[in-house]
Amino acid sequence: MAQSNHVIDLVHSRIDEFLETRQPIVTTISADLTPLVDFSRQFLSGGKRFRALFCYWGWQSIGACSAAGEAGASEALPTHIVSAAAALEIFHAAALVHDDIIDNSDTRRGAASAHKLFEGMHGMSGWAGSQIEFGRAAGILLGDLLLGWSDELLDEGLAAAPDATAALRARAEFNRMRTEVTVGQYLDILEERAWLTYPEAELFDRALRVIVFKSAKYSVQAPLVIGAALAGAGPEHLDALRAFGLPLGIAFQLRDDLLGVFGDASVTGKPSGDDLREGKRTVLVALARAQLTDTARGELDALLGDPLLTQAQIKVLQRTILDSGAVERIEALIVANVAEALAALEGSPITDAVTTRLMELAETVTHRAF
Question: Measured in whole angstroms, how far is the alpha carbon of residue 88 from the centre of its chain?
Fold first, then answer.
């Protein structure tokens, strides 16, 4: 635990240092651009840093520094791994900014989402035109800026890596992750609109495909593989991490889907039932629909995706999903995927010390409270 906390602190510091170097590039153009840096800092100051931790433990998994163990928690880490882990967090922030625009989400981590911050700035300044249009446009640009900065920080780290071949492999994995999460996001918005045209029997598999590419790979699998590739891991080692990371990433997102419907806003930082207002066609919804009567299914479909859902209507939807047995099935899927992930560690080339840490992380990311 101490070592993971130390990594988080180093990633925080690296992000702060990086933003310090980018601020003058932006603000010397115009003082009007200061909010881009300020909002970037705001969105990069929080979060659990799961992606950074998976990247670090992927790097550790080939024994790069495993002998240091907890005793090495106060020691400095090489620039290349800290920068790679921090780049993943900036990439994540970019994805969240864009995701909130796509989903029309007003909040993120208990505060206003990026586009809502820009809306508020427009309103307080008395500018011309639509607050909403300005907020969305500015939010898209902030997400683009963060996306570019994640690349720049990664490149800084890779340039400092002692093994140029390993750095190229890590870059290739990062590039693949970026493509997969982007197309996964497209699949997500596609399912929200196209589900009605597909057979009922296909909806579960289509929702699971969204989980794999929008979340599971970039939340868990890709950070692990990027870290390990940067440390010079071979194909067998990378395959073991992939076999662990994908089912764990699926379990992570299944838990997130439950939180999106039933989560406590004070814990999740998002309004309870937010996924219901957004009309997310998740695995949870697919499982619920499969067990409902035609009448109940029609009522669920009629309400799902209405941004003006009242709390009473949200409670009706929550009760419908609970009564369908879908929550119990999701919990069973989480257990099964975690078991598959842990089984992949048995007999793998991953060191025992890191296996223990990965098991702890698996527990943490799949047992987040409602």
Answer: 10
Residue 297 has, within 13 A of its CA and on its CB side, a CA count of 12
User: Does residue 370 surpass a pLDDT of 60?
Assistant: no
Element (H, E) at 108: strand 107-108
For residues 299 and 324, is the Cβ–Cβ distance under 8 A? no
> CA–CA separation, 24 vs 20, rounded Å?
8
Number of other residues whose CB lies within 10 A of the CB of residue 50: 19
Q: How many residues does the chain have?
A: 370
Query: From CA 279, how far away is CA 308, in angstroms rounded?
Result: 11
> For tokens 């625009």, what's the residue?
101
| Spatial distance between the Cα atoms of 76 and 6, rounded to a whole number of angstroms | 9
- Give the residue among 282, 172, 185, 221 at the shortest CA–CA distance from 58: 221
Domains delineated in the chain: 2-366 (1.10.600.10)
How far is the C-alpha of 362 from the C-alpha of 301, rounded, in Å?
34
Here the tokens at position 37 are 């840096």
The angle that helices 50-60 and 222-230 make with each other, rounded to 10 degrees, is 40
Model pLDDT for residues 312-348, shown as the tens digit of each residue:
999 999 999 999 999 999 999 999 999 999 999 999 9
Q: Determine the Cα–Cα distance for residues 200 and 287; give it in Å rounded to an integer.
A: 10
The pair of structure tokens assigned to 300 is 């669920």
Q: How far apart are CA 17 and CA 194, in angstroms?
A: 44
pLDDT attached to residue 144: 98
Q: Which of 18, 13, 11, 56 is nearest to 40 (CA)?
A: 18
Q: How far apart are CA 236 and CA 180, in angstroms?
A: 22
Distance of CA 335 to the CA centre of its chain: 20
As a whole number of angstroms, the distance between CA 240 and CA 314 comes to 41
What residue type is 173 in one-letter code? E
Q: What is the mean pLDDT of residues 81-104?
A: 96
124: burial class by Cβ within 10 Å (0-12, 13-18, 19+)? exposed
Least confident of 67-71, 156-160, 175-179: 67-71
